[in-house]
Amino acid sequence: MSLFTGWRAAFRIARRDAVRAKGRSALVVAMIALPVLGVTAADLTYRSALPTVAEDLTADLGAADALFIDQGMGPVRLEQMPDGIMWGTPEDAPDTLPEDERKPVDVPATFPKGSRSLTEQSLPASVTTRHGITDTQITELAVADPLLRGRVELTEGAYPKAKDEIAATEAFLKASGLSVGDRVTVRGPEQAYTLTGAVELPADLKSESLFAVPGAVIAPWQKIADGDKEILPPQAGDRKWLVKGPSGAGVTWSDVRAANEKGVVVRARQVVLDPPPDSEVPMAAQMGGWETDNAEMTAAALTVAAMAVLEIVLLAGPAFAVGARRSRRQLGLVGSCGGTRGQVRAVVLAGGAVLGGVGAVVGVGAGFGLTALFRPMIEDFTGRRFGELTVQPWEILAIAVLGLVTGVLAALAPAIVAGRQSVLESLTGRRGSRRSSRVLPVVGSLVLAAGVALAVYGGVSGNINLVAGGSVLAELGLLCCIPVIVGFLGRLGRRLPLTPRIALRDAARNRGRTAPAVAAVMAAVAGSVAIATYTSSSAAEQAYDHEPNLTAGTAVVMAFDTSQKANLPRARAAVEQNYPVNGGRADIGRVWAGSDCSVYYDDEEEGGCGTIGLVKPTGEGHSCPLKGKGAKELALRISADEHKRLMNSPACVDERWTMVSLGNDDSKIVIGDAGLLTSYVKLDDPAAAKALAAGTPVLLNPAYAENGEVTLKTVHTYSERDKENRARHPGKARTTTDRLKVYVAPDRYAATPGIRMILPQRTAAELGLHTEDHAGVYTLSREPNDAERQAADAAIEQSGNRAYVMTANGTEPDDDAAILLILALFAGVVTLGAAAITTGLSKADAEADLTTLSAVGAPPGVRRSLSGFQCLVVALTGVLLGTLAGIVPAVALRLTDLRAALAEMRADPMESAYTPIVMPWETIALLALVVPVLAGLLAAALTSSRQKLARRAG
After folding, report:
1. What phi and psi, each to the nearest 5 degrees, are found at residue 600?
2. What is the annotated signal peptide range for this record (predicted)?
3. Mean pLDDT in residue range 911-921
4. Residue 840: what pLDDT?
5. Whole-model pTM?
6. 628-632 contacts: CB < 8 A, separation 24 or more?
7. Interior CA angle at 625 toward 621 and 629, to 5°?
8. Among 185, 214, 827, 949, which residue carries the largest CB count within 10 Å?
9. Is 242 helix (H, G, I), strand (E, B) or coil?
């Protein structure tokens, strides 16, 4: 028999066997087809969503030939790359002077003769919505012109044509609650426009922006601002021109170079698609060394692909093993008719090839179908329209071959076992007894230890590639130890009831199908636990290092400028009416020593607000030990908790720069009463309230106090132009130093955000300081939603826009919780699938044993409970081993973070090196308790307790 004839017979036998065992064949095909489907769909989606150069040009230019941009450098020579993105001034160019930047550039003069152009200019603006107001971008562009097709597309209504019309993207309409036909008002100039249509940007579906015709927004706004100095002028961006070149000529590289000479950058379609040689690009020499190193990404992709193939092999391998045992009589007949061991192996391998090929074809076909079906949903998710489904034939072929090879690999081990089996054992149905390999667990233990050591070394040295390699090596080593672990499980059931004892012994006796399923669960759970552990640890670090801007659960409405006294009361009313306020309001006043702070000056030497601040004493208890000599050694020597305690201690807490000050300067001295103590500071002490009522300041940071007193240094300055304040406070500029008796709060209040000392109103007046109502503090019952924020912002805008609202910032735990939930669901699904597959194979493989149990009088429920316990054993064992395997890469990555944190601490001892390792116990509990129990219950519920008695063969 020739080689070709032998394999043809093997494939014919494999095909017939696959048709005969339809359930098992469908199971294997599904296991192979599902990952092939996923990879095919991912490849099609990635290639289609990844814009081509031509699609990128359409997103920027529409149907135009080029985009000319005035970079505001003036008429100075520039150099650019052919793509029009990278540009700069030549190395030999003279320095650009401010007067050069103010010289206008005649950009239209640089267009090729016979060109047609459209102008484009954008600006940020605040506009009204159905809920209130929001910030957006308005672009002046004639979007109705055919030159914009492909870049801006109309989806509803009509394009704007008049100067009181405007179009909005669908994302803006959804966020604002508006619709076509509504009116939109641009805040500032208070110009109203009618929404005539909804548009979309195919390259950016999530863009929330507005489009008006040229001259509809910027010019009227500028005209109003010129006549009313209270209105800020529009902050328009660079002006651009979309140019359609002469018919058939386009915009060439010579046109681009000519425009560069005048200070204009050009992105031309013809040049980008057919770039000139580097010899004609002066800037190319500067960019020659720019290359992107994707070695780490490539290594990560190959690792993920290898683990995915391993996952499929682990799940499909037991199915082939059971199939080979179910067909052992047929294989024995092949041997008895003169077939060699190689030909027996060929039959099993042919089965893997047949099912792998069918799975690959089904997976690729389903991948195409599902991608086309869910294309609109995918486009909305990616935020970009596909030009067309981009198919890379060689990639699709490689994916199909991967499915075929996976099927062959899954059948390889069963083929070797079938080839070693004697003809007599095959024909009589006896399995024989084989001792498990004693070498494999020893090798696995050594590989496990080496992998852990390599991952830890990679973490300590900061080498991510070593961390990844060591983690995979450790997982493979643990995989080699699984047969021994499964065999040990059989000994644990000696004192258990009947069905769990049989389940454990069956798992130990049939390690060929139990171990791969446990390994598959372990692999899925290991990845999920690793990511979940790292995510939980990073979230804990973020929460540990979080510096709040306000006291938790509070909101502050603060005035920019209180020259118009009625603005702050109206802003407070806006917050009280729209925010979820819980309780009353505590007012905050600002204090200053010089001229009226609501007056703006061009020259600080003319006056200003003066300065006021507390003088910090020196010595122990007042100076921060993390600053100055010996600070670095101390920071590296103490624990993270001790470092945190020092950072929040009174001596060090003010050494960290912070933007938040509820006063008007960095002194953090505010005017307040007892209500501020209880609502914001959370200092519920009658003695402190009594001190404020008596005119004694309350000091929140004890480091500034000495013997119950503080030193207040004040610089009083006045401007001659501040006529009103000058008349009230005549005299020359002077510096005063006062000693004030204070009530010193406990140390823990030193970290109160934005306040260092609360000064009573009457005490400030006695010191000759000026005060004014400045802010209001509210306690919130919950975080305000977007609609409430927009409504409050709109009310503040209507009151003059001279105030703003701050709420306490958080650490955003919701995203982390979502990630952990997704990981748990993924691992849970794989666990359920692997356990179900193993249970089904166990039931098929142990049919004879179940028949015997029924024959000796076992109750019908034994069959159901046995399936449940078999499923529970696989799921629980895989989850526990996967948790152990997942800890390795998580710990190694956290060691990498620790190394980086220590380097930052050496540079600045004030930086924290806290890098905790936090186990995601909720995720682990879900995987270790809920999923295995659920798998067991489902297996028991889906198993029939009835069995048809049949005569046992042999």
Report:
1. -100, 140
2. none
3. 84
4. 62
5. 0.68
6. 631/909, 632/905, 632/906, 632/909
7. 130
8. 827
9. strand
Note the pLDDT of residue 71: 78
How far is Cα 764 from Cα 770, in angstroms, rounded to an integer? 7
Q: What token pair was written down for 876?
A: 């629980």
Find out whether 513 and 318 touch, Cβ atoms under 8 Å.
Answer: yes
| Separation of alpha carbons 914 and 170, rounded Å | 45
The H-assigned helical ranges of 374-430 are: 375-382, 393-420, 423-428
Instruction: Name the nearest CA neighbour of 529 among 826, 892, 925, 886.
Output: 886
Local structure of residue 276 (DSSP, 8 states): P
Query: Which pLDDT does position 94 carry in this prediction?
Result: 60
Q: What is the pLDDT of residues 843-868, one digit of tens each?
A: 655 566 667 667 777 676 777 787 77
Q: Please give the structure tokens belonging to residue 473.
A: 């090596």
User: 861-907 and 813-845 helices cross at what angle (nearest 10)?
Assistant: 150
Report whether 343 contacts 379 (CB < 8 A): no
User: 775 forms bridges with which residues in the sheet?
Assistant: 558, 588
Distance of alpha carbon 880 from alpha carbon 731, whole angstroms: 80
- Reported as a pLDDT band with limits 50, 70 and 90, residue 209 is very high
Beta strand pairing call for 669-671 and 757-759: parallel
Nearest-angstrom CA–CA distance, 882 and 452: 14
- What CA–CA distance (Å, rounded) separates 894 from 885? 15
Q: Which residue, 180, 233, 174, 236, is CA-closest to 205?
A: 174
Q: Which two tokens stand for residue 729?
A: 């406070």
The residue whose two tokens read 């004693």 is 438
Q: Is 571 in contact with 560 (CB distance < 8 Å)?
A: no
Task: Give CA–CA dist 519/834, Å, rounded.
Answer: 9
The pLDDT score that the predictor gives to residue 826 is 58
The single residue listed with the structure tokens 């501040």 is: 722
Strand order in the sheet with 709-716: 611-615, 709-716, 734-741
Strand pairing report for 743-744 and 698-699? parallel
Contacts of 339 (CB under 8 A, 6+ apart): none
Choose among 415, 160, 122, 344: nearest CA to 240. Answer: 122
Locate 307 and state its tokens.
């683990």
List of residues 6+ apart from 171 with CB closer than 8 A: 205, 206, 207, 208
Residue 535 CA to residue 893 CA, distance in Å, equals: 11
The DSSP string of 162-222 is STTEEEEEHHHHHHHT--TT-EEEETTTTEEEEEEEEEE-TT-TT--EEEE-TTSSHHHHH
Position with higher pLDDT, 31 vs 822: 31
Other Cβ atoms within 10 Å of 747 Cβ, number? 17
**And the tokens for 20?**
């005969």
Q: Rounded distance, CA 849 to CA 842, Å?
A: 11
Query: What letter does residue 114 receive in the DSSP assignment?
Result: T
With 0-12 / 13-18 / 19 or more C-beta atoms within 10 angstroms meaning exposed / middle / buried, residue 720 is exposed
pLDDT band (50, 70, 90) for residue 337: low
Residues 155-166 pLDDT 10s: 999 999 999 999
Q: Are residues 386 and 212 in contact, defined by beta-carbon separation less than 8 angstroms? A: no
Q: Residue written as tokens 């060439």?
A: 252
- Antiparallel, parallel or unpaired: β 803-807 and 153-157: unpaired
HSE of 601 in the Cβ direction (CA atoms, 13 Å)?
18
User: How far is it, in rounded angstroms, from Cα 233 to Cα 223?
Assistant: 9
Eight-state DSSP code of residue 497:
-
- In angstroms, how far apart are the furthest CA atoms of the chain? 121
- H/E/C letters for each residue in 32-66? HHHHHHHHHHHHHHHHHHCCCHHHHHHHHHCCCCE
- Are the C-beta atoms of 202 and 150 separated by less than 8 Å? yes
Place of tokens 């003036």: 74
Instruction: Give the 3-state secondary structure of 72-85.
Output: CCCCCCCEECCCCC
Cα end-to-end span (Å), the chain: 33
